Amino acid sequence: MAAARGLTKLYGIGLHAIRQNTTLKATTFLLGALRQQPFDSSAEKPQFPGASAEFIDHLEFIQPNVISGIPVYRVMDRQGQIINPSEDPKLPKEMVLNFYQKMTLLNTMDRILYESQRQGRISFYMTNYGEEGTHVGSAAALEPTDLVFGQYREAGVLMYRGFRLDLFMAQCYANADDLGKGRQMPVHYGCKDLNFVTISSPLATQIPQAAGAAYAVKRENTNRVVICYFGEGAASEGDAHAGFNFSATLECPLLFFCRNNGYAISTPTNEQYRGDGIAARGPGYGLMSIRVDGNDVFAVYNATKEARRRAVAENQPFLIEAMTYRIGHHSTSDDSSAYRSVDEVNYWDKQDHPISRLRHYMTARGWWGEDEERAWRKQSRKLVMEAFERAEKRLKPNPELLFTDVYDEMMHESLSCPQSEKMDLKIIQSLLERVQLCRRCWKTKECAGAGGFF
Fold first, then answer.
1. Alpha carbon distance 300, 154 (integer Å)
2. Where do the H-state alpha helices sit in 186-314?
3. Regarding beta strands 288-293 and 254-260, do their DSSP bridges make them parallel or antiparallel, or are they unpaired?
4. What's the DSSP call for residue 294?
5. What is the pLDDT of residues 91-125, one digit of tens each?
6. Does domain 93-399 have CATH number 3.40.50.970?
7. Contact present, 187 and 124 (Cβ < 8 Å)
8. Is 270 within 8 Å of 233 (Cβ atoms)?
9. Where is the Dehydrogenase E1 component domain (predicted)?
10. Three-state DSSP state, 111
11. What is the mean predicted confidence (pLDDT) over 373-391?
12. What is d(CA 25, CA 381) in angstroms, rounded to the nearest whole number?
């Protein structure tokens, strides 16, 4: 009996050992299987809400020059020959002639008003030499109802839209015909009827304003876009970041048009930024972007027209960087010979000018010749000089207009001032005398209201 119990116990021990061994083998097999089939971390996708990307397992910084550079789109070469026939906009003769006449008329006006400032007739001026193609090419691709925010070198856009020479002259002379009533510096144009917002002197203020306007246009659900012009120097302002970001996140029908003319006053592009121009910034903000030859009026036209079409259809902003060159001084307050050579300027003036390029195109088709050129140059100068002479003879605006369009309701109250006694604003004959008088009160602390007045 005892032997039987011992045999049973031995069997139980053996069975337990077999089960343990089986479990151990099964566990070992399972662990081995896991080791043989490791977890594939590359299949794991990032879930961060701030970016669309993949994981990598090696340290690598993104180089600023990952690509050789954004290419420059063009239609014509420097001799006016169409490079790719499929890109030729095939514009009618009358339209191309209008392009040329507006570009050359702007050039003539620039020369006369520049000399006018040098003679002391006006206080300030900025020319558009070398950038005429960016103005006319972009303006022609827009609709009259599209809203324009300019910087201070887009006179050709206004001219193409129908702004008369008399109005250009009136603004620069600040006479009684000036739509701005003489309250702006020269070349700070604006025209409500032509949907051109009055230009501001500070750089880049128009960029976030344009984004807000484009958002309003989107909410109106009308077939309109907003176009905002600025230079590559203005793109370094903080306002540019705000405008780019707001327009992209709010999905606005807005065209950012950057004139990269090589210089921000005296600062060349190689001292302004280290990246690949301005178009390279677009993808970072979520902007559809393109770089075009700004001296090729057809390339500018094609790019702007397609960007406008898509901006309306898709409700998204576009960034166009037009590569060009500022042949003239930044303004009449600048001497560009101090920071660039005469040879550099002459190259762009003689070898790669938007006006000469378009003239080559027209000449090759028999649309323009020496006789037409001489006749038009003479006529355009006559038109500008006639407007110039009329502007000089006009009186200045009434000083009281300084306060109109500022307050909702004008209050003509008498000023309680020991120096001026009870002078009513309506009967003040000279604004300058009144300002000087009240400044004297303020300095001597005799008039409690004068400080608040200013």
1. 14
2. 206-220, 238-249, 269-272, 282-285, 297-314
3. unpaired
4. T
5. 999 999 999 999 999 999 999 999 999 999 999 99
6. yes
7. yes
8. no
9. 101-400
10. helix
11. 98
12. 102
Token pair listed for 25: 């083998």
Tokens at 155, concatenated: 């006179």
Q: What is the DSSP letter of 406?
A: T
Per-residue pLDDT, 378? 98
Residue 6's pLDDT is: 52
pLDDT of residue 21: 53
In angstroms, the CA 322 to CA 299 distance is 9
Residues marked as catalytic: 115, 201, 330-331
pLDDT for res 126: 97
Cβ neighbours for 163, distance < 8 A, ≥ 6 positions apart: 189, 191, 194, 196
What is the model's pTM? Answer: 0.82
Tell me if 129 sits within 8 A of 328, measured CB to CB.
Answer: yes
What's the rounded Cα separation, in Å, for the pair 133 and 106?
11
At residue 34, the 3 state secondary structure works out as helix
Give the C-alpha separation, 247 to 323, whole Å: 23
The residue extents of the domains of the chain are 93-399
**Edge-to-edge strand list for the sheet holding 196-197:** 196-197, 147-149, 226-231, 254-260, 318-323, 288-293
Amino acid at position 185, single letter: M
